[in-house]
From TrEMBL:
Belongs to the UPF0065 (bug) family. It holds the Pfam family TctC. Gene3D superfamilies: Bordetella uptake gene, domain 1, Periplasmic binding protein-like II. CDD domains: PBP2_Bug_TTT. This is Tripartite tricarboxylate transporter substrate binding protein. The lineage of its organism: Bacteria, Pseudomonadati, Pseudomonadota, Alphaproteobacteria, Acetobacterales. It comes from the Bacteria. Transmembrane segments: none annotated. SUPFAM superfamilies: Periplasmic binding protein-like II. PANTHER family: BLR1237 PROTEIN (PTHR42928:SF5), TRICARBOXYLATE-BINDING PROTEIN (PTHR42928). InterPro entries: BUG, Bug_dom1.
Amino acid sequence: MHRRLFAGALGASVLAAPVVRAQVFDRPIRLIVPFAPGGTSDILARILGPSVGRQIGQNVVVENRAGAAGNVGADFVAKSAPDGSTVLLIDTGALATAPSLYQRLSFDPANDLAPVNLLIYAPYLLAVHPSVSANTPQELAALAKARPQALNVANSGVGGATHLTSLVLAQHWGAELTQVPYRGGAAALTAVSAGESQMLVNGATATSPFVRDGRLKGIAVTGARRFADFPNLPTFAELGWPGAEAGTFQGVLVRAGTPAVLVNKLDEAFRNAMAEPDNARRLADIGAETQSLGPDAFRSWMVRETEQWGRVVRANNIRLD
């Protein structure tokens, strides 16, 4: 009311200027990966980042802000300016488990972050160090039950989806295995390949090269079908194991309150980037299955995932504060 009464032509243009700026990307994009380099989120960011930059006419700079199972980087984005220039690329399992794990979480995933696109799904790959005597799923389950002290399980952080999946799996085997948390999947992979820990469940995207070159020994995979690179490895479903549908779901989010036009432009840019032939080939090569759920579908999916993982966290009485 007051603006219409008192703003002249010059005042109106000044008032309109922030709205105009909010509709375009006017600075480089910081693509925040809340895990260490070398993990699935990092690999995906570096594949798609250049193409997204071309789509929106800005450079995309990948920044790794690891810590607290993804919460450090997620909090950084949740507290950034709502202008679309700071973007989170994360394994959404970290966001789905956080509300149940932390009473004093420094941000609210549901209200402080706005979904942009659920990019890809990649199955988990259960692998062990080559020194582990078990070569089949049945042998590994028997070893875990008979000699649990022989298997320390590396995970990407306490309460993360890989931790919870391996925890439920060990319970199914009737084994109490020692869980060893690391700062992200890349660090967990390094630890198991070095023999520091003996077993892990981790995204196939990042884990496959370690199995391919013999640094790790593949045992089984999650997902609806056998992994193309390792057709001899059975699925959890074939084995009757829990967690058959688990895997790494990688998504992109921005600060809540970011104008819808910018959210939609980012959604479109990531969709187009994944569809580029070279990127599509690279994603297929690392076992990624395109999901490409837009903002509304992604939000609904996150609600369901948060409820599902919350039940697992509560059933195992896991709290981190």
